[in-house]
Amino acid sequence: MKKWYKQLHWQIMIGLILGLIWGLLASIAGFSGFTVDYIQPIGTIFINLLKLIAVPLVLASLIVGVTSLNDMTKLSRMGGKTVAIYIVTTICAITIGLTVVNIIQPGDFLPAETQQELMSGYQENIEGSTQSAQEVMDRSPLAFLVDIVPENLFASASDNGNMLQIVFVAILLGIGIIQIPKEKGEPLITFFDSFNDVIIKIVDYIMIIAPYGVFALMAGVIVELAGDDISQALDLLGALGWYSLAVLIGLLLHVLIVYSSLFKLFSKMKFSDFFKAIRPAILLGFSTSSSSATLPVTMDRMENNAGVDEEVSSFVLPIGATINMDGTSLYQAVAAVFISQALGLDLSIAQQITIVLTATLASIGTAGVPGAGIIMLVIVLQAIEVPVEGIALILGVDRILDMCRTAVNITGDAAVSVAVAYTEGLLGDMHLEDD
Question: Which of 369, 129, 410 is nearest to 285 (CA)?
Fold first, then answer.
């Protein structure tokens, strides 16, 4: 058994803590510029490495998974289960968020003068998100289906936001390979199988620098939030403390209630063992704020530690990283009601039901758009006729909360992959000996 300090999740945790300490010291001592120029780039390189291998990993592993199938109905059945469970968990997340924010009423704790300061300080950041949200709403109802089918594979592969297109192409290629004579298809299967093994080995190499990358990312986040005056960050967190608390309580309840129920219904795996298997991916998701960047690690942990068959993980997880946003959707609900409360607007039951429907649809329709969280929130606010300028009230703490909701998004993707694997008879034994 490895010594505790040699275990990956502990190394990442230490990196997070040291990055937090460094960021605070940098803000107090006034060398934020040094941190931004010479430390934060290490974190950026780490994220870029993860993003670099995400597309080839999904492409190769999914082709291998499809070619191992003898029955195409299994693939369609798996897809139906995946989308259905994702939609149900998203609706549950939004409902929990609305319940928590209506109980806590965080908008009532925001002083009027603080509200004015936040509105004036962050007003200029809203225009771009409003324009992007309008572009999403102007699209046809079936535009997201059109977006799944690419017109150019290489163009799709150049952007990790097009992961659904990569999934579509991989499935198409896999089906094509098994439909041609076996002697012709076998070399392609062998190639993609070997290519997949190479990518997984590269993931192992990248994870060697994970603690350093996480340290740099965390230091950069703190410096970005505080600048050269840590008191500004503390004042901001204090003013929006009840709002942040409402989001965090909602996220925690969603994990403990919805995902634990999912395991009881669709799996015999212990919830605690699941978290042991997925810890490095959750910590990376927290530090990077990107489900796509963390995808290679999530797939690796679910296959090699949680016992999820590659056939399931390579299909369910890329889709989840694109359209399953439980944490983000819950945040939309809390933020929308908080902004309404802060602006003195009372939302009716009908408007709150509208939040559930709009946030659920927006989580799919804006999945591939950069800054999807804020764009989704603009769409939700416009649907319930709340001034979008109110987003300025929450932008100051959005980066920290984004880290938390991304961790929940990744947990949700992984939990659904366990449920789908179990129902398909493709959930093997767990391997936690290295943890």
Answer: 410
